[in-house]
Amino acid sequence: MTAVSPHRLIRQLTLEALYEGETSGHPPEAAFRRRLREEREKRPALRGEEWERRGIAAIEGVQAMRPELDRQIQAAAPKYPVSTLAIVDRNILRLAIWELVSDDAAPVAAVINEAVELAHRYGGDTSPSFVNGVLRTVSERLRGPADGPGRSGEEPAGRESRTTTDPTQQS
To answer: Is the pLDDT of residue 165 over 50?
Structure first.
């Protein structure tokens, strides 16, 4: 089994907490802390306070900026109202866009790659390409063209046959 970096694992736990908060009404911070406690039993590298601070900061940031994050998503994918997107896709996008707007030092390509990895793990078949397209469009609007072929003005690919996957039900 390949070891998952603490950074990636914190993103996964953050996404799971945001998802739980939106689907169950549980406070996402409490869900994050619960999941982090569970993971710390298996992964001693997560025992430092830094990891809890990172996850809680991301959750609080996403919650505080949710209306603006949703506007960014809607502007990048106008054919798909944010309220109709799969909950997991919506939260992957919110988390990644929050990262892009809150940390100017975060490499755009790395943020997009991490979000696409989350979409592969938790989303449906078309989630990775949709997330990639939306984030490329948003990142170009925020920071200018990223490395690689630009997608500004293009509709994100892969939305025709949308399947939804619950992030808590892994295959």
So the answer is: no
Rounded Cα distance between 158 and 128, Å, is 8
Q: What does the DSSP 8-state code read for residue 170?
A: -
Cβ atoms of 106 and 100 within 8 Å: the answer is: yes
pTM of the model: 0.83
Using CA atoms, how far apart are residues 33 and 149, in angstroms rounded to an integer? 39
**φ, ψ for residue 158, nearest 5 deg:** 85, 25
**Exposed / middle / buried, residue 144 (Cβ in 10 Å: 0-12, 13-18, 19+):** exposed
- Contact by Cβ (8 Å): 94, 11: no
| Residue 65 in tokens | 């900026």
DSSP, res 171: -
Distances (CA, A) of 49 to 12, 33, 42, 52, 55: 17, 11, 16, 5, 10
CB 61 within 8 A of CB 89: no
